Amino acid sequence: MISTQDISGIVLAGGRARRFDLSGQVDKGLLLLQGQPLVQHLVRRLRPQVGPIFISANRNPEQYVHWGRVVPDTVELEGYLGPLAGLASVLDQVTTPWALSCPVDLPFVPAELGKRLIKAVQEQGAVAAYAQAERSHPLCLLLRTDQSAALKEYLLSGERRVMSWLHSIGAVEVDFRDAPAHAFFNINTPQDLETAQGW
């Protein structure tokens, strides 16, 4: 049986947020939603579902440290190789057998995200499970941490596509279409942030 203490939480906050601001200067995880940073909203959701929390962040570590242990992309994976690079870098630091990751721009993820992904990996004997709602959310992911070396090898081969990697390790999809409509609302633009302020 997988317990919450067997799982590290990973907040993926290392991107450049170019869809939010073409300059790449915006640190999306620190944007305010209802007066609190996006990272705080997500950590509040994840905390009851996991043990230790890690933040994958390449900027502003002095701010992110308030919500978890900050891990930048490792030197061999530098250059903004995408969210899998952040995930791989954090997995090098994790000591639990499982990790539950989520992008920082999904502040409303379901409270039962971890529980349902755990059920799927246990029932199907899988090394990973991810959420599917109106579309796939492959980074809302429960992953067995012994997949770390395979992930790094995948990235160093020049690949970075999340779904291709998940298919290669036999990850299972978990249906969350019964979740509230905004559970997987993705804040990618200023308009999205304005919409989310109303919830």
UniProtKB/TrEMBL annotation:
**Enzyme Commission number:** 2.7.7.77
Q: Does the keyword field hold Glycoprotein?
A: no
Q: Name one GO molecular function term.
A: metal ion binding
Its main subcellular localisation, reduced to a broad class, is cytoplasm
- Supply the InterPro entries for this chain: MobA-like_NTP_Trfase (IPR025877), Molybde_CF_guanTrfase (IPR013482), Nucleotide-diphossugar_trans (IPR029044)
| Location of this chain's protein in the cell | Cytoplasm
Keyword vocabulary terms for this entry: Cytoplasm, GTP-binding, Magnesium, Metal-binding, Molybdenum cofactor biosynthesis, Nucleotide-binding, Nucleotidyltransferase, Transferase
MobA-like NTP transferase domain: from which residue to which, for each copy?
9-166
Q: Which residues does Mg(2+) bind?
A: D105
Query: Which residues of the sequence carry a binding annotation for GTP?
Result: L12, A13, G14, K28, D73, D105
A Gene Ontology BP annotation from the UniProt entry: bis(molybdopterin guanine dinucleotide)molybdenum biosynthetic process
- Which reaction equations make up its catalytic activity? Mo-molybdopterin + GTP + H(+) = Mo-molybdopterin guanine dinucleotide + diphosphate
Q: Which GO terms describe its cellular component?
A: cytoplasm
Q: Does the keyword Zinc apply?
A: no
PANTHER family xrefs: MOLYBDENUM COFACTOR GUANYLYLTRANSFERASE
Instruction: Describe its function.
Output: Transfers a GMP moiety from GTP to Mo-molybdopterin (Mo-MPT) cofactor (Moco or molybdenum cofactor) to form Mo-molybdopterin guanine dinucleotide (Mo-MGD) cofactor.
On assembly, the entry states: Monomer.
User: What is the name listed in the Swiss-Prot or TrEMBL entry for this protein?
Assistant: Molybdenum cofactor guanylyltransferase
Taxonomic source organism: Alcaligenes pakistanensis
**Encoding gene per record:** mobA
